[in-house]
Amino acid sequence: MRHVPVLIVGGSLVGLSASLFLRHHNVPHLLIDKHRGSAAHPRAMGFTETTMEHYRACGIADRIPQNDPGARLRRVQVESLFSDWVAETDWTPGEPSDRSAALSPCTGAAIAQDELEPILRAAAIEAGAQLSLGVELTDLTQDEDRATATVRHRDDGIQETIEADWVIACDGADSTIREGLGIARSGVGHLRTVRSVLFRCPDADVVLDRGAQQFEIEQPGFKAFLTTYGDGRWVLMFDDDRERNTEELRAAVQRALGRDLPFEIVTTGKWELAGRIAEEYRRGRIFLAGDAAHQLPPTRGGFGANTGIDDVWNLAWKLAAVLGGRADVGLLDTYHAERRPIGWLRHQQTFSRPDYAHWAPSTFRPEPLFGNDAMEFGQLNRSTAVRGAGPDLPAAAPPKVWAGQPGTRAPHVWEDGEEGTRSTLDLFGRDYVLLSANRAWIDLGERLSIDAVMVGRGFRFPAGQPFAAMFGVSGAGATLVRPDGIVAWRSQKLPDAGAEASIRRLIAARG
Ligand SMILES: Cc1cc2nc3c(=O)[nH]c(=O)nc-3n(C[C@H](O)[C@H](O)[C@H](O)COP(=O)(O)OP(=O)(O)OC[C@H]3O[C@@H](n4cnc5c(N)ncnc54)[C@H](O)[C@@H]3O)c2cc1C
Fold this sequence. Notes:
Layout: E1 2-9, H1 13-24, E2 29-33, E3 46-47, H2 49-57, E4 75-78, E5 85-88, E6 109-110, H3 113-126, E7 130-133, E8 135-142, E9 147-153, E10 159-169, H4 176-181, E11 185-200, E12 214-219, E13 222-228, E14 233-238, H5 246-257, E15 264-278, E16 282-283, E17 286-288, E18 294-295, H6 305-323, H7 333-352, H8 354-357, H9 372-377, H10 399-402, E19 433-436, H11 439-447, E20 451-454, H12 467-471, E21 478-481, E22 487-491, H13 497-508
Parallel strand pairs: 1-2, 1-10, 2-7, 4-12, 10-17, 19-20
Antiparallel strand pairs: 3-6, 4-5, 8-9, 9-10, 11-14, 11-15, 12-13, 13-14, 15-18, 16-17, 19-21, 21-22
Helix pairs in contact: 1-3, 1-6, 6-7
The structure holds flavin-adenine dinucleotide.
Flavin-adenine dinucleotide (FAD) is lined by residues 9-15, 32-35, 43-46, 136-137, 170-172, 176, 271, 290-291, 298, 302, 304-306, 308.
Keywords: FAD, Flavoprotein, Monooxygenase, Oxidoreductase
Cofactor: FAD
Domain FAD-binding: 4-345
């Protein structure tokens, strides 16, 4: 019987990201997936700035082609791919679809899931992760001390038992782990089944020069959605749940293209358009992450895979702190406390936005929309791992409004110095960091063995974006940023015994 500190079940986008993030925090683990490689039909294509920030922290952002700054994802209504645009879809009515480039050191990335997964797989292995592919979980039990997994090697049918301290279930929307635990889900539920055909037509890519990437096709008797993976591959999604033979598929592609271009059918797909959020993200030693925890349709915000990648970014440092004996096991409760409300917020925002509102059932009550910057960079984390994020605060707001509010992502500012290319975010990502313009706080950080950065020396803020305004901290005060870049706590005063005790308690997750 093997024993591992962490077992990750599922090696798609979220499982592989979990593996990479755990290695980033030096946590030994095993990842299993029943498949050896990526699915032939990629799903995700749009990755957000936040996802890229996490990959940047792990040193792999430059392996992933990022969008040009200012590039916009645009969806238009057309008769066929090359015809005139009838109208353009607003993602958030009244807001430009691009996000403010000043808010992140990264732009988003447009890369097909089956091109990103091999990059993540290679990076995780390079960082020392152990991946067992072609290995299926067949049973999982747990008691107070451990989780016990039974797995089957699909090549030779050999069964193996693996003990783990903790398990991360990244086994997708139909998660057998979640079902086995009997964890219910809430939300709009199943809305419809979507069928698609993936085809290769490099000649169609010239249309992308016009600036739109997603096309709602409408002709008499024919409605479909056409989008690109940006590498000569296109996917056509049908408006009905009817199985088509090859001849029908070819005719539909031809109709959508509206031009006689050579193309080759690669494969077909069948998807569920649904909204379901698990009631519990943790049961005992098992955590749900990614689609296992929240099933959300792809929308402008890329709330699907991106939400899952953010889940495991939140979880990885907590597991590292508990396994390393630096924090009390109670820290792990904050995963559900912080991530479940964010999953629910994203569910509500998805079905309140125009691209999905018409699919929501009549019982769904739309909520006021948060803007793009608030949803991407300004979601609030409320738990015992944060001090000062009271119930009166909104679930999200733009970084400018938050100004370093505990519970939100620490703001990005480029350093005003010779290096010039360093972001505040580059200070975070591994351990707690104390940031202050006052020497007394730096001394306290050193006494507590916390990384302490002296504003003006360790990091120079530009005149137009001073520390005090960006992080909302006075000259006498300090801010404490968690290893995941979320502000944990801040003070406006010089350090005293109470402040020291608060920091100690936060870091050790005690009280
Ligand atoms: C058409 C489409 C387009 C999309 N576009 C976007 C987008 O642009 N941006 C975005 O953010 N999201 C998008 N999504 C959503 C995104 O694809 C999913 O959120 C994402 O793939 C979920 O990743 P996951 O790792 O949680 O689960 P999955 O990708 O479902 O992976 C689960 C993994 O678990 C493995 N597994 C399952 N059971 C077992 C077992 N018993 N033993 C071992 N292994 C097991 C499977 O083999 C699989 O590899 C899109 C979805 C669709 C359908």
